[in-house]
Amino acid sequence: MAITNNYSPAWPQGDTEADQIAAATYHALHNRFFTDPLFGRDYPEIGLDPAVVHDGDLDIIAAPLDALGVNYYNPTGVRAPAGVAPLPFDLVPLDGYPKTDFGWPVIPDGLRELLGWLKQEYGEALPPIHVTESGCAYEGVDDPQRVTYLDGHIKAVRAAIEDGVDVRGYFVWSLLDNFEWAEGYSKRFGLVHVDFETQVRTPKTSYAWYRDLIRASR
Fold first, then answer.
1. How crowded is residue 100: how many other Cβ atoms within 10 Å of its Cβ?
2. β-bridge mates for residue 128, sequence order
3. Is the pTM of the predicted complex or chain greater than 0.90?
4. How far apart (Å, rounded) are the C-alpha atoms in residues 77 and 73?
5. GO: which molecular function terms (predicted)?
6. What is the tens place of the pLDDT at every residue in 17-43?
7. Which end of the chain has fewer CB atoms within 10 angstroms, the N or the C?
8. pLDDT tens-place string over residues 123-143
9. Is 191 within 8 Å of 172 (Cβ atoms)?
């Protein structure tokens, strides 16, 4: 039995104590709120009404897992909110990094950081990890940016393994260009280009690169 969450390291974008608190709050909501109960802890104390947790719930949630799935795309920039705000943090862009066609920053080391945090935070309770989603949106059949992205993130996984994190697999999102939620067919994550009018499928440069990497790793 396994379960997956979309994780994102929270990077404070400011030097004030309020910025640090905002980042810690986002981290609790986005990462710890999902993972703490899985490994025998209560939910983080960030405003959850205790009445929604019934007797025995946490024991069921903390049933043993065979694996933890980690979806990773990028860290999140966080700072203290300006004035009255609906949330106790503001999300801000992380500048100075290459961007995908989605506008997401390309930061492979964030994956290494995330995997290291999971091991440090949950220790022996943590089951083997599989990176169940990692990928980027770029146009074109010749997609060297995707090759660079995948190379960096696979190297980040290798670095985490060398640091002692038990990572068993890395899965690219996605094999085929597909329907991307609210973005529809406008963002292409696939290793294989799909002509959505004709359904013709063309392997991209990244497909051949990834295939050769897998063959060389056997």
1. 19
2. none
3. yes
4. 13
5. beta-glucosidase activity
6. 999 999 999 999 999 999 999 999 999
7. C
8. 999 999 999 999 999 999 999
9. yes
